[in-house]
Amino acid sequence: MNPANRPPVEAAVLGTGQTHHTSRRLDVSMAGLCREAIDAAMADARVGWDDIDAIIIGKAPDLFEGVMMPELMLADALGAAGRPLLRVHTAGSVGGSTAIAATAHVQSGRFRRVLAVSWEKQSESNAMWALSLPVPFAAPVGAGAGGHFAPHVRSYIETSGAPLDTGAKVVVKDRRAGARNPHAHLHQPDITVEQVMAGKMLWDPIRYDETCPSSDGASAIVIGDADAAREAENAGRGVAWIHATSMRTEAGTYSGRNHRSPRAGRDAAAALWAESGIDDPREEIDVAEIYVPFSWFEPMWLENLGFCAAGDGWKLVAEGATAPDGDLPVNPSGGVLSSNPIGASGMLRFAEAARQVMGRADEHQISGARRAVGHAYGGASQYFSMWVVGAEPLGELAAPEARQDPAI
């Protein structure tokens, strides 16, 4: 067979790791922050440095930390000396894109185990300032990410008829969920919709509590081929088999662009569901870790991903469908609204999806989770990365009606 036509090698997440996320991790350097996540992922995967064949790293723009090309000084600390090293950058979606790049390295058949790590130490710079710089040949943001996305949220409210407390309901769900996650930056177990609605308006209609925090943190995953995954399973350790990955990109601004539901996101989701054999994501996905830095993006992305029809995303929120005890739990980890180390936020979504199907999500574990989606977006909602992971290899997956039984 022509190697170019060779089917990809099966790949699985063997282990995940993440740091504690907070506003300022003054106790560690950038290298120490990364190693905290790396060491945790390697311990979870039960591998040593001799088992790692390549290192894939990802982070958001260098201006977010004020350090140009940090991978050069970090190569030794990341275990990359003497090994292949690749940096990925796709704005806020970079954590997810980094996981996908690591997956592709394993699926190529050239590497047996690959370590991926992404991070952000936002306390060493100022993301608002970095996002407000004039960009040549593009519309200026002027007020950071919130100022850019607020008009899109307002447009969604007006076109969908969503109640004005929809975003507040998402915040309450995610922050209460984050209170069960020891790694999360924000722990607010008693937050209420009334408190959120009474908060300061930052960018109409986005209120203070409807925004993500600014966090220092890192995430890492170890991805292995089928043999490595079987070895782990034979040793009694669950893995997260990677059923499908997808990335799509589009320009940030162009005539007629749908900012509420970008085409790149719709196309990426359609390709993801097709590759993973999913006909009805609402019925066949047990957990969704979706990149929601502003609460209103949960209903918007539910529609963009195809979990519901256009204009119905807010109804899933109102019905409680996306709560941890709903039929489509979204961000049981607390999501980006609870922790946002931008360069790592996408990988955290991917890692948390993997933790769910491995049964290692601790206090925020969703009972019976067998298939999960991780999602990230970046830039002006122009970069999208996502994957589907499952407790079994794609070819061995039970029929949808059987997967509904948590005992399986």
Automatic annotation (TrEMBL):
**Protein name, entry field:** Thiolase domain-containing protein
Where would I find the Thiolase C-terminal domain in this sequence?
263-386
Give one Pfam family: Thiolase_C_1
Q: Which organism was this protein described from?
A: Dietzia timorensis
* Residues spanning the signal sequence: none
Q: Which GO terms describe its molecular function?
A: acyltransferase activity, transferring groups other than amino-acyl groups
